[in-house]
Amino acid sequence: MTEHVELREITDDNRDAVCAVRVRPDQKKFVASVKKSLKDARKKPHLSPWYRAVYADDVPVGFVMLNWAVPPGTRGVVGSYVLWRLLVGAEFQHRGYGRATLAKVIELVRADGGTELFTSYQPGKGEPWPFYRGFGFQPTGEIDDGEIVLRCALT
Asked: What CATH number is associated with residue 100?
């Protein structure tokens, strides 16, 4: 299992390759595609979208998007730092890329002064709850649009 990943900006040169990264068909109910994520980011600039392609050995293997340093009280977000999307391509799963990406994101959020990271997930067979629990995420007790909201203390 490799844990080396690089988070790279998405540019005109790599956009098509990054958008081609897809999860397994049974995971589509849990996470939107890269293309839809980029569209959501353009439509919701007030949520401070921050996104990167996940690379391993110069190959795009995934995608991550957060609400980054959103001012407190901003409508539509539960905290200043929210993991909005995280996906690893079907053929690259079970190699540690998701864990390495989330570890890197947590490191970046801490370096920016963040003390907590939120995310949410759609419950169901194959849900990502065990993955998030492994990082210390805990349910907040809130449900947002049918998704269970999680919080990870970064202190």
From this structure: 3.40.630.30
The mean predicted confidence, pLDDT, of the chain is 94
DSSP-derived pairing of the beta strands 6-8 and 49-56: antiparallel
The answer to whether the predicted template modeling score (pTM) of the entire model surpasses 0.85 is yes
Amino acid at 71: P
| Structural domain span for residue 30 | 6-153
Average pLDDT over residues 82-98: 96
Write out the chain in H/E/C secondary structure: CCCCCEEECCCCCCHHHHHCCCCCHHHCCCCCCHHHHHHHHHHCHHHCEEEEEEEECCEEEEEEEEECCCCCCCCCCCCCCEEEEEEECHHHCCCCHHHHHHHHHHHHHHHCCCCEEEEEECCCCCCCHHHHHCCCCEEEEEEECCEEEEEEECC
Residues of the chain with pLDDT > 70: what percent? 98
